[in-house]
Amino acid sequence: MYVCVDFDGTIVDHRYPDIGQPVPGAIKWLKRLQERGARLILYTMRADDPGRALLSEAVRYLQAEGIILYGVNRNPDQDAWTSSPKAYGEIYIDDAAFGCPLIFPRGFARPCVDWKKVGPPVEHMVLSRS
């Protein structure tokens, strides 16, 4: 199962262009999902600019945390059937998505994904597709 995951507000606190503190439970759940066979695709507006490699910094952050990305802002498997720039996924996890459960941890700039509520049903979906 392809799981597209936003970065700022979903994996880390909104501190763009910097990388904020980890959202509680995000890394734990991403590792758990990848262990259960999810193909994680980073789906973010961050980009590498001449002045700063913001997307590359996010990718390195996730790699350092043990997250293996299947794709970055694209799903490599969709190249055979479309040239669309939108990354194909079966699930999209994003703090800006309508209905996504949010929390507001002390010291965070904005609300972020509540992984205690998001993780279990996503895991169930991933396992049901295996």
Tell me the name of the CATH homologous superfamily: HAD superfamily/HAD-like
Mean pLDDT equals 96
Give the neighbour order of strands across the main sheet: 5-2-1-6
The tally of beta strands, per DSSP, is 8
Q: Portion of residues in helices?
A: 25-40%
Account of the 3D structure:
InterPro entries: HAD-like_sf, HAD_sf. This protein has 130 residues and is of the alpha/beta class. It has one domain (2-128): Rossmann fold (3-Layer(aba) Sandwich). Helices cover 28% and strands 16% of the residues. The protein is built from three helices and eight strands. The strands form three sheets. Strands 5-2-1-6 form a four-stranded parallel sheet, with helices on one face. Strands 3-4 form a two-stranded antiparallel ribbon. Strands 7-8 form a two-stranded antiparallel ribbon. Helix 1 (26-35) packs parallel to helix 3. It starts with a strand and ends with a helix. The model has no long low-confidence stretch (mean pLDDT 96).
Secondary structure elements and pairings:
Blueprint: E1 2-5, H1 26-35, E2 39-42, E3 48-49, E4 52-53, H2 54-64, E5 71-72, E6 91-93, E7 102-103, E8 112-113, H3 115-129
Parallel strand pairs: 1-2, 1-6, 2-5
Antiparallel strand pairs: 3-4, 7-8
Helix pairs in contact: 1-3
